[in-house]
Specification:
Layout (H helix, E strand, L loop, with lengths): L4 E6 L2 E6 L10 H15 L6 E6 L3 E3 L4 H11 L1 H19 L5 E5 L2 E3 L3 H6 L2 E5 L3 E3 L13 H8 L2 H10 L3 E2 H7 L4 E3 L4 H13 L3 H13 L5 H18 L1 H12 L18
Parallel strand pairs: 2-3, 3-5, 4-6, 5-7, 6-8, 7-10
Antiparallel strand pairs: 1-2, 8-9
Helix pairs in contact: 1-3, 2-3, 5-6, 9-10, 10-11
The protein binds acetyl coenzyme *A.
Length: 272
């Protein structure tokens, strides 16, 4: 049986693919289970420093599978519905707090439930002609599974409301303009652009990357004072995992004068 999610690792970048192109990478329960396995497998591997999530074929993901996720589970009853939700929400949550930095490489269609992993990824790059939509309203439901929350987190109130109420699609360029993704580039340059961003991340201290990505997400729901306190403690906790990294960074700047932290990363020890 073909794998619904595939991955390969090249130069420390793990390229993970939704692999149901014939169903536009709609998220079925089987795909959701497989995705969690793949994320598990990659999370602490030494040979991968950044995870990119992309789609095979013309879609990134056409959202939840209306047949296998909704109709079939609703026919089985509430227990099946909840189970399918747990599986889907489970890997999206996992992605939000993933150990390694993650990049969504949106190559094509991105609908509804697809907004959850889109937000789960730390950064997002789209093809200019990719299409994004909260299509739920078009078939008579609200954007659930976190999609409404994602729209409110990433878009202005007016844009989120318009996007959700009309179900109109926007292209990659507009998605970048609205802040749904970091940047949109011509499809032919998408992989190259994402590779370049991933390489920047690969130069950084991995403990600092994890602490930073969590901090950016966590402080969003804190008061200023709580955030200040959290950040002190988060840095102290990070020190206990990597006490030498930042000392080395300071040493190369202050003593050796071999780099400027304002302009790039310090030299990490070569990997064994
Ligand atoms: N759920 C189940 N099957 C799907 C889904 C989906 N979300 N999206 C596509 N498919 C299936 C189609 O039924 C079709 O199956 P078939 O070949 O067995 O008939 C196959 O994928 C190809 O789909 P087409 O519609 O033929 O592909 P096309 O490229 O013309 O259109 C598009 C792509 C625009 C993505 C279209 O498939 C579509 O509108 N899909 C639904 C998008 C959507 O609204 N998703 C739900 C969001 S809401 C939520 O996630 C909670």
């Amino acid at each position: 049986m073909k794998s619904l999610v595939t991955f390969e690792i090249t130069d420390r970048i793990a390229w993970v693919r939704f692999n149901r192109p014939e169903k536009r990478n709609a998220m079925s329960p089987a795909l959701n289970r497989r995705m969690l396995e793949v994320l598990d497998e990659l999370e602490f591997r030494e040979d991968a420093g950044v995870v990119v999530l992309t789609g095979e074929g013309s879609a990134w993901s056409a959202g939840m599978d209306l047949q296998e996720y909704f109709r079939e589970n609703e026919a089985r009853g509430l227990g099946a519905v909840r189970q399918a939700q747990r599986e889907a929400y489970g890997w999206w949550r996992r992605l939000r707090w993933y150990q390694k930095p993650t990049i969504a490489m949106v190559n094509g269609w991105c609908f509804g439930g697809g907004y959850a992993p889109l937000f789960g990824c730390d950064l997002a790059y789209a093809a200019e002609d990719a299409k994004f939509g909260l299509s739920e309203i078009n078939w008579g439901i609200l954007p659930g599974g976190g999609a409404t929350k994602v729209a409110r987190e990433l878009l202005s109130f007016r844009r989120a409301m318009y996007h959700a109420l009309t179900g109109e699609t926007i292209d990659g360029k507009r998605a970048a303009d609205w802040g749904l993704v970091n940047e949109a580039v011509p499809a032919a340059q998408l992989r190259e652009r994402v590779t370049a961003v991933a390489k920047v991340l690969l130069e950084k201290n991995p403990v600092a990357l994890k602490a930073t990505k969590d901090a950016v997400r966590r402080v969003a729901e804190m008061t200023f004072d709580n955030a200040e306190d959290y950040l002190v403690r988060a840095q102290e906790a990070a020190n206990s995992f990597d006490n030498e990294g930042r000392k080395e960074g300071i040493r190369q700047f202050i003593d050796e004068k071999s780099y400027k932290p304002g302009l790039g990363a310090y030299r990490k020890k070569p990997r064994k």
